[in-house]
Amino acid sequence: MMNKPNKPMNVFDVQSSQKVIGQEKFLDAFKKILDHGGYAQGPETKELDEKLAQFCGANYCSTCGSGTDALTLALMAWDVKPGDAVFVSSFTFVASAECIIVCGATPVFVDSKPDTYNMDPEDLKRAITEVKAQGKLNPKAVIAVDIFGSPCELDEIKAIAHTNGMKVLSDAAQSFGSSYKGTRTGNVADMTATSFYPTKPLGAYGDGGAVFSHTNEDNELIKSCRVHGMSPEDHYDNVRMGMTGRMNSFQAAVLLLKLSVFENELKVRKQIASRYDNELSPYFRKQRVLDGCESAYALYTVNCDDRDELMAYLKECGIGCGAYYPRPVNTQTAYQQWNNRPMPVCEKLSKTVLSLPMHPYLESDAQDYIIEKMNEFAAKKLNKAA
Ligand SMILES: Cc1ncc(COP(=O)(O)O)c(C=O)c1O
C-alpha cells in the first residue's frame, strides 16, 4: 500500500507551467504590452494567429475572446439564422449548442457512441432524415465535438453533412493539439473552433479562443464578425451582424509563451493516458480513441456503473475527480423546447462517466497512487460479484 503523495491530485493544474517557463518571461511580455498600449488585439494576437495556424497546418487562424465566441463567429460567418437546423452532440459542454441559439437557429441534438462518447454518425443520419421529413427547417451545419480531446469521426460526419449540403464546424474546444489520421485538429473540418480557457490543453490565464479556416473568404468573414460585422474598407460601415469577439493582447502573450512548451506537455499527457490505459483495471471502460488518431487528453475519462460511489471513494482518498457531464445538454432547463429526440447513450454516459487527474505536471507517485486506489475499488467490486 502506497502512502498518499504530499502534492494535491487535482483534475487540472493551471499554474505549474508558469514555473517551468519562468514567471519573469510573463512579466516581461506584459510590460511590453503596457508600453506599446495595443491592449485589445495588439501585435501579440497577430503573431499568435500565425503561430497557431503553423502549429496545426491550417491556412488561416483568427484568435478571439473565447471558445464560445469562436463557435458563434463561425456560425455567423456561414450566415446561420432563424429557420436553419444545426445538428450537434448532446453529450458536451453547453456552449456547443448555445452558439446555435444565439444565431437564432434551431439545435437538433444527436446521440453519442458508447465507446468514443462522440457524435454517432448513424444517429446524425436519422436526425437529418427527420428534419427533412418535417420540412420546417433548412439543414445548414453540423457541430462535431471532440469530447475530452479525442477526435470524433470527422470523415464520416463530413461525408454525411456534405451529401446533405451542410458544412461541418469542429468544436475542438477540448482537442487543440490532437490529430485526426495524421492531420492536426484545426485543419480537418470546414472550420474549427477552439478554446484557450485555463483548463484546456493549451490554456491562457483568462478567456481566449480561435477559429481555423481553409479559405481567405471564411477568414475575412470571421475577422469582420469579430468586430461587429465591420467592413474591411470602411470601419464605420458594418456590413453584417457580428459581436465583440477580440482576444486581448495579454492572453495572446501568455499563449505564445505556453505554446513554446506545448508539444512537450502533449507528450506527457499521452504518457499518463497510456499508463491509465494499460494499468487501470478493465472494470473501468476507457474512452476509445479512434484508430490513427491522437487525443489531446484534455480529460482522461472512464465509464463505470458505480460512478457516484467511486467518486466518493476517490474524494476520501484525496484524489480529485469530476463527472463531465452530469446532464446532457438536451435535458437542461433552458433547452427543453429542443429536447425532442431520444438520447439513450448520452443519458447513460452522464450517469457513468468519471474524469481522473490529467495534466502534464501530475507526478509519477501521484499516478501510481491514483492507479492503486482505482484498482482497489475495482477489486472490491469484482470480488463481490464473484
Ligand atoms: C466542448 C466545448 N465547447 C465550447 C466550449 C466553450 O469555450 P469557452 O469556455 O472558452 O467559451 C467549451 C469550454 O469548456 C467546451 O468544453
Describe the structure.
This protein has 386 residues and is α/β, with parallel strands linked by helices. It has two domains: 17-256, Type I PLP-dependent aspartate aminotransferase-like (Major domain) (Aspartate Aminotransferase, domain 2, 3-Layer(aba) Sandwich); 261-385, Aspartate Aminotransferase, domain 1 (Alpha-Beta Complex). The chain is 41% helix and 14% strand. The chain is built from twelve helices and twelve strands. The chain has helices spanning 16-21, 23-36, 43-56, 67-77, 95-102, 121-134, 154-163, 216-226, 249-279, 307-316, 344-352, 364-385; strands at residues 60-64, 84-89, 106-110, 138-145, 167-171, 179-180, 183-184, 191-195, 209-213, 285-286, 300-303, 353-356. It has a seven-stranded mixed β-sheet with strand order 1-9-8-5-4-2-3, sandwiched between helices. Strands 10-11-12 form a three-stranded antiparallel β-sheet. Strand 4 (138-145), helix 7 and strand 5 (167-171) form a beta-alpha-beta unit. Helix 2 runs antiparallel to helix 9 (249-279) and helix 3 runs parallel beside helix 9. The longest helix is centred in the last third of the chain and has 31 residues, at 249-279. The protein is globular. The two termini are 24 Å apart. The model has no long low-confidence stretch (mean pLDDT 97). The site of pyridoxal-5'-phosphate (PLP) has 15 residues, from helix 4 and helix 5.
